Amino acid sequence: MELMKKHKLDGNLWIQGIFNIRHRWIPLWNSFVTKYEIALLKVYDRESGEDFASEHRYHQVLLKDDVKIYTREMFHKLEDQFDQVIRFAAIERNVEGDLLQLTVKSHSGRTESFELNIDLEKLTGNCGYKLFEYVGLPCCHLLKVFSKYDILKIPDAFIMTR
Q: pLDDT tens digits, the chain, 162 residues: what are they?
């Protein structure tokens, strides 16, 4: 009743009628909301699983060749980068022919984002994260872009020779 008075609805007959029979509809409403949330979680879990399976299949194809290229230690570091790919979304900012400018942002709500430039014809580019320049491995942001554009082999430009 306080809420109705606060919002000056105490004279509204329909609101008063709904309020008077609240013992009948509130349990049903709560039941509906609970079941809806459970159904929504099931859909989310199923879609997340499908996303993971899709990314995992892609990783297996790409990593199959890379085990021959990298030392064991570097290969494990590359696997770690692959594991992080699913956390990001690649958003095109500018396209000029085969030259792309993208932003790769985190899904986790953190403000983590990196700018990338990729030439899809020459398969060259760079990422603001600079892992390739410092460590010699493509970062998860580059790998996300490779995934988005179905590049099934790490381009030679992103394989540092010893």
A: 788 888 888 888 998 898 889 888 999 999 999 999 999 888 888 777 766 665 555 566 667 777 778 888 888 898 899 888 888 999 999 999 989 999 999 887 677 889 999 999 999 999 999 999 999 999 999 999 998 898 888 899 999 876
- Do residues 140 and 82 lie in contact, with contact meaning Cβ atoms separated by under 8 Å? yes
What sign has the CA pseudo-torsion 118, 56, 130, 92?
positive
Strands, DSSP E only, in 48-138? 88-96, 99-106, 113-119, 124-127
Q: Which two tokens stand for residue 18?
A: 């709904």
**Token reading at 48:** 């997340």
Q: What are phi and psi of 150, to 5 degrees?
A: 55, 40
Number of C-beta neighbours around residue 29 at 10 A? 10
pTM to 2 decimal places: 0.62
